[in-house]
Amino acid sequence: MTKFKSRLCKLAAVCLLAVGILNVSGFLHAAGLSVTASASTIYVGDSVTFTVSASGGAGNISVSGAANGTYWLDNSSQSFTVTATAEGTLTVSASGTLGDYNTEKDVAVSGSASVQVVAKPSQTQNNQPSEKPETPKTEEPQKEEKKLSSNANLASLRLSQGTLSPKFSASKTQYTVNLNGDVSSIKVSASTADDKAVVYGTGTKSLKPGKNTITVSVAAEDGSTKEYTITVNVDETPVVFVTYNGTKLGFVRSLDGVDKPAKSFEEVKIKVDGKEVKAWKSNLLKKTVVYLQDDKTKEKTTIFIIRKPTQSKHSFVLWRCWGTMSLS
Questions:
Q1: pLDDT(315) > 60
Q2: In order of start, what are the domains of the chain with their CATH numbers?
């Protein structure tokens, strides 16, 4: 009996140690943000690369200082190369909110990095005899240092669909475009006014029903930046409808701003009448929940539970506390 108790105590100690290790490991992967620089000190005219990195989560990160912009980081990083034009300090700061992969909670994060910029040391001539003064040399006129361009304007901004409002102008940075509900992507093209400037944020962008924000950034030769923002509104009017107790109800296409029923639910897509609609599904509760909108009042307050009846392979049951109906 004494040996059995001894073994039981050892087993309990091992279990406690394993739990402690698991608890510590959770902290090792918390969402975080870091800003690093490729050098701590550089000369005027040299370049340095700043890197903003997000780990353990995903979210929008705002960058300011020697580099500017807003970027979506999903356990990834964004780099910026900056050229020093004068003595002083170059600083890049970043902040935002990351959704923690482990806790599923939003975490406020921030970070910064600085680089000292110094003048290049003057070169002196060595190994000259002290008793023989140097022959005076005719000084050549110094070439004026070329000033780097600060032009961060766009020359054009185009979309594959829709019309920008207002009409594009290099001085205007805010635009809106409205699209039909069946549009799921859009291509953004842009060109810079200065051929030495660089543009970021172009290409094909995925769209969701409702409001979408696209940012096009321009970095001038001297490192200064400018942002152009396009708000793309995709019509989110429901395209799949059902009738329940004489009321026409449409499946809501965008779940932005809508709280899920419980923590165990995840956003999924299901098919109704052969068309995909958004829903929440809980494998734990074995339930699928959809969000519907009254076609007349446009109110989005009705939550229904969809269940698949055992007697049919092709229909769902739309259930609410006062009744059921079939969706084929």
A1: no
A2: 28-118 (2.60.40.10), 154-234 (2.60.40.2340), 241-327 (no CATH)
Residue 129: asked if its preceding bond is cis (omega within 30°), the reply is: no
Burial profile 309-322: b = 16 or more Cβ within 10 angstroms, e = fewer: eeeeeeebebeeee
CA distances from 107 to 72, 97, 245, 262 (A): 15, 5, 44, 20
Could you give the CA distance from residue 46 to residue 149 in angstroms, rounded to a whole number?
16
Query: Is residue 202 over pLDDT 50?
Result: yes
Indicate if the pLDDT at residue 31 is higher than 60. yes
Task: Give me 161's structure tokens.
Answer: 């669909």
Structure tokens at 289: 């929940």
CA 108 to each of CA 33, 82, 112, 208, 310: distance values in angstroms, whole numbers, following the listed order:
9, 26, 14, 26, 47
Whether residue 120 contacts residue 87, with contact meaning beta carbons closer than 8 Å, is answered with: no
Q: What is the pLDDT of residue 259?
A: 74
Q: Output the DSSP codes for 109-149.
A: EEEEEEEEEEPPPPP---S--TTSPPPP-PPPPPPPPPPPP
Query: Coil, strand, or helix at residue 24?
Result: helix
Of the candidate ranges 105-119, 193-207, 249-263, the one whose mean pLDDT is the lowest: 249-263
State the amino acid at position 247 in one-letter form. T
Burial letters 190-219, b for 16+ CB under 10 A, else e: bebeeeebebbbbeebebebbebebbbbbb
What pTM, to 2 d.p., does this model score?
0.45
Interatomic CA distance for residues 73 and 51, integer angstroms: 12
Within 13 Å and on the Cβ side, how many CA atoms surround 261?
20
Please give the distance of CA 182 from its chain centroid, rounded to a whole number.
24
